[in-house]
Design a protein that fits this description.
alpha/beta; TIM Barrel; 8-stranded parallel β-sheet; binds adenine; binds zinc ion
Length: 335
């Protein structure tokens, strides 16, 4: 199964690039930029990665991002993730970035996006990996700050496919960002939002109705509202589910309690993703493997999950067909 998953052509639709910052690169960049870290060595970093909930993770995650200063830093971070994609047969990836985490520290928006974008272009040229970049607004900050960030993004519009919403969910409902999302849609962006990770099913309804999202990030708490489950199924609204993240942040106590395959069997368009792989114990294939080991995911289910990742991606119909063909050929040979 491990080998089957490794070579399975797939897309990743929920990865925060800042969440792919491995401790080794964190130390390299800290040294390069003269930034003090609260850790003496990599063991201490790994010790610190024990979380009770989303906020306990976010506190450490935002702190670590302080080592990212230059355009080259953002390039190196993104390139390291894309090399992982190559190893894992992730042939298309849709990457979140959090500009406010950096602009609030005095790093220019252009520094962040130019570094990331250069790595994405190199990946297309050298590795054959395609990508879409998604700008996320931090929901613990004000709607005004989000609007200001949207303005800063407009000169780079050709690099950005969609806007999203992440960070502390509970207490920061979708309605807080309705106007920002209206402006983003008017500017031509698609929209997504984290909803129903820690927050209630109502936040999923509101992400769909108020923010007009094309996908829901996480969304696993939909299961508490049968009408919502039916709505998601009928509309084939994709959920970008992140199994290892959900267990590390105690959304589910154990992987054996995760509901992703239950949702899949009910006909929902669920996908598998890594969220913040450097913090949660694995990249995309490790997430697929965990579903096999703890929930008995079969090869046939893995193929459907991979198909869902292509169907729910933000590429052209023609590109989706190309991906699907590659997956079908693989499944016919190895499935
Ligand atoms: N930012 C990075 N990872 C996140 C997550 N799982 N939920 C909300 N915001 C995030
Ligand atoms: Zn996320």
């Amino acid at each position: 199964m491990k080998e089957f998953i490794k070579k399975l052509p797939k897309a990743e639709l929920h990865i925060h690039i800042e969440g792919s910052l491995e401790p080794e690169l964190m130390f390299t960049l800290a040294k390069r930029n003269g930034v003090d870290l609260p850790y003496a060595n990599i063991d201490e970093v790994k010790q610190a990665y024990q979380f009770d909930n989303l906020q306990s993770f976010l506190d450490i995650y935002y702190q670590s991002a302080a080592v990212l200063i230059t355009e080259q830093d953002f390039y190196d971070l993104t390139w390291a993730y894309l090399k992982r994609c190559e190893e894992e047969t992730v042939i298309h990836t849709e990457i979140f970035f959090d500009p406010q985490t950096h602009t609030d520290r005095g790093i220019a928006f252009a520094t962040v996006i130019n570094g990331i974008n250069r790595a994405l272009n190199d990946a297309q040229q050298q590795l054959g990996i395609s990508s879409v970049l998604i700008l996320c607004f931090l929901r613990h900050l004000s709607a005004e700050s989000a609007m200001n960030t949207l303005q800063q993004a407009l000169p780079f519009k050709q690099y950005i496919g969609a806007v999203g919403l992440d960070s502390s969910e509970v207490g920061h409902p979708p309605e807080k960002f309705q106007q920002v999302f209206e402006s983003a849609i008017a500017a031509g962006f698609l929209t997504v939002a984290h909803a129903g990770e820690e927050g209630p099913p109502q936040y999923i309804w509101d992400a769909i109705d108020l923010l007009k999202v094309s996908r829901v990030d996480h969304g696993v708490r939909c299961i508490e509202d049968p009408k919502l489950v039916e709505h998601l199924r009928e509309r084939q609204m994709a959920l970008t589910v992140c199994p290892l993240s959900n267990t590390k942040l105690k959304v589910f106590e154990n992987m054996s309690e995760h509901n992703i395959l239950q949702l899949l069997e009910q006909g929902l368009a669920v996908t598998v993703n890594s969220d913040d792989p450097a913090y949660f114990g694995g990249y995309l294939n490790q997430n697929y493997l965990a579903l096999h080991e703890s929930l008995g995911m079969t090869k046939a289910q893995a193929v459907i999950l991979a198909q869902n990742s292509f169907t729910a991606s933000f590429v052209t119909a023609q590109q989706k067909q190309k991906f699907t063909k590659q997956l079908r050929l693989y499944a016919a040979k190895e499935g």
